[in-house]
Here is the input.
Amino acid sequence: MNGTAVVAEELALLDPAERGHHRLAWLSTVDHKRIAVLYLLTGLFFFVVGGVEALFIRLQLAVPNNHFLQPDTFNQLFTMHGTTMIFLVIMPLSFGLVNYLLPLQIGARDMAFPRLNALGFWLVPFGGILLHFSILAGGAPAVGWFSYAPLSETPYASTPGVDYWAIALLVLGIGSVGFAINTIATVLSRRAPGMTMRRLPLFTWINFVNAFMIILAIPVLNAGLAMLLIDRQLEGHFFLPFHGGSAVLWQHIFWAFGHPEVYIIVLPAFGVVSEVIPVFSRKPIFGYEFVAASTVAIAILSMSVWGHHMFTVGMGRAANSFFAIASLLIAIPTGVKVLNWTATMFGGRIRFAVPMLFCIAFLVQFLLAGITGISHAVVPLDWQTKNSYYLIAHFHFVAVGAILFALLAAVQFWFPKMSGRMLSERLGKWSFWLMVIGFNMTFIIQHFLGLLGMPRRVFTYPDLPHWAWMNMLSTVGVFFMSAASLILLWNIVISFSRGKIAGDNPWNAWTLEWATTSPPPHENFHALPPIRSRRPLWDAANPDRPDPVVGNNTSEIESPDKNKVSILSFIVSEAAFFTVLLLAYLFFYAHPQPGPGPRELNVPRTLIFSLCLFASSFTIWRSEISLSKQRRSSMLGWLALTIMLGGIFLVGQGLEYWKLFQTGVNVSTNLFATTFFTLTGFHGLHVFFGLVALLIFLWLAWQGDFASGRGPALAAAGYYWHFVDIVWVFVLLAVYILPLMR
Amino acid sequence: MTTYEFLTSAWRWNSILLLFSALAVVGYFLAFGRQGRPVYLAAALAVFLLALISPVSALAEGYLFSAHMVQHILLVLIVPALLLLSLPRSFSLPRLLAGFTYPLVGWIAGVGAMWFWHEPTLCNAATTSRAVFAIQTISLLLMGSVFWWQVLAPRDAERLSPAAGIAYLFTACTACSILGIILTFAPVAICSVYQQPVDRLGLLNTIRGNWGLTSDKDQQIGGLLMWVPMCLIYLAAILAQLARWHSNPAPHSEKSNA
Here is the structure.
């Protein structure tokens, strides 16, 4: 059915001229609105896949001592269900919404980098295919969505499932980082006149903050995945305890990503709710500044509390107490938000249309999710309920009750903008009530199952008192949710051709996306209303009582160069990646293993080659200066010299590797070798890619294509090159200089 | 010595520190008269004395790395911030010191104060030698002041714009968290003096027994203090930046462009 939806939407959204080659038009599009629709349809498709997996899980658990599924199949199902729902459903759906709405809300024509945007999207189906290809290649991963080591290591998971899992997540992660960089660059450098940062709609602001979390958190996972793949493919030792590796290190890395990830997927939902509730309460949001600032607080706090996922690991009472307190603190900014949303409704003229119903359900479910969440921050309680169905219930309240409900509100709310037609309210209410009833039926009871002691990830269970009816009730609830999902899909399909015509602004909303036609033209806007407050359409409709002007009455905005913004964001994400590799190196350096160590390295030679690399930072700077003074030959010379110096450095690294290989030291020798080759190898790879980029510049400049206007591009390459050099300073200190000080 | 005895008797009324504080008060009123904000000065001196004469100081002197960390954080983050807040709005630095008002210098001073003094040799020296400890204390106050100048300079024009301020504080927070993470998970003693304390006060049995603080756990707590609660100080400053940004009718960043 989803396939039909794709074709139907494609045809209706195309210009008459494009219908002849509509497949190609959608495959090659760089328009943010179409990419967004592709994101949304992909998310919807995988929602069906992940939903069917959930259905099978619940069918297996419906009755005690069931043998409907094999244990291993069950393990594969819950692993795929978790991975799919987080990385292939919630993230693409959120990214799709952001992609569609964010440029419209700030009055932009498109995202800052349309081609990067297309790449980011196409990596999602690519990652999805890689993940699911594992089924054909010997079995899907069966180690849970967080792939705890050493279970995920070759001795315990010998089929390539985990490899596909890791590669798929790397691919998806790269796409997410690209998307986040694009979001930051778009918000900072593509705003319409008058759309100052303080006037941003909350959906845009929250997703702007979220983009920073993505560029900081996803690289941490990428680093962990790279280490896991090195362990599995090259026989490294990072997470294998019997060679001195640390399984707990994987948990730290995974949750250093995983906890921010919870907020990465929940913040877009907060954004949706912050837009929908005011519109259906006919009031501006209560305490805009508090909603905006608490988002920043949540983002920062969430990055330092991952330890609360590891209370039962044995970090010690001291560490547990600190993480418990920090985790409890997150309740404050989150509570501020809930208060603001509720206060927005208070005294408003509330219209109980479907988007609002979903938002109200969101508020109730999210409150419960928050309360059970806080209970998990209490260490002794966490010890009792960890890995029980109580935990399952908690995070499904977050993922379904909060995030999915908000996304469903978003679909109902913005579908008219995307398609030009309204979704049916009647069908919407059916799917709303079925969803709410089914969801609570499935998951409320799981709290009690967990408290009775039912562990997660067991393929079946004995017939203990109460367990049978509780599980049956939970399974029955899933059928309600499935029915709700089918009605939703049906609603989308039929409303697309037969829905009521929406008009520009069917909900009487106030942000800029409603100022253009539905669906918007290719260039988004023919003309923009003046922007002086956070609700430009309110001001336009009520000129006698406009909102107070936010900031000074200017339409001038600062828009920094998008190349600079994007390369700096990229550098931030790369810094996070290298920080993890460097910390892993130091961690294992402090636990020396038998076999080769830092004394095998040739320090004087490396210092000489390092000087070449550092000198190249100077030469590329000279090259930029020459470009700005329009001195072509001098620019070419300095650039060529930079490339040469970088090349010499790589030769030096090659010599080091060659010597080590000759003495029989390779990545699988011991932990020192594993960490050394990983850290310096990734750095070398970055130098190599930098060289390739500089060679392209050199070639372009040689062709005379560098006459003018390329300054920012070379400056961006320069920033990257300096960054690679700075990373080497730290690597040099940690790997070569630190052992000398012992 | 029991905990109660310790908490009541371990206050050291160091005459130099008290004299210094008194001089600071007199100097402050001579220089600024009624223009300043003496409440902040009082708070700064209270925290300063708390860090250096209270039982925290006695513990930091060779017993507990975590107590040392509390002292360190108070001296580098809290006292300088309060001192800058106590200055009158009209205050500006003499020309000679203008070099300290570059954001990069401030950032390096703030982060460096954390990293530099936790180099094992220096950390040990500061714990064992009174002279090094005095140098450390003064340097922490100065470096902290240079760091906070970017955010809390008396004149608004000399502060970073709120957005830049947030980036400044967040990166500093990250850089210090990384050190906290290293201290928390380091299997070796960073400050080996705290491994085998010289039991000057007869307190060691209470610490190891009643309080249950082994030297490993002590270092872990020290690292965690730097990792988690210290970040909360930066976070509070970041929220203050956001408040400043939203409360200002003509934001700095937009005015400069107009």
Observations:
- Residues 1-28 of chain A form one domain.
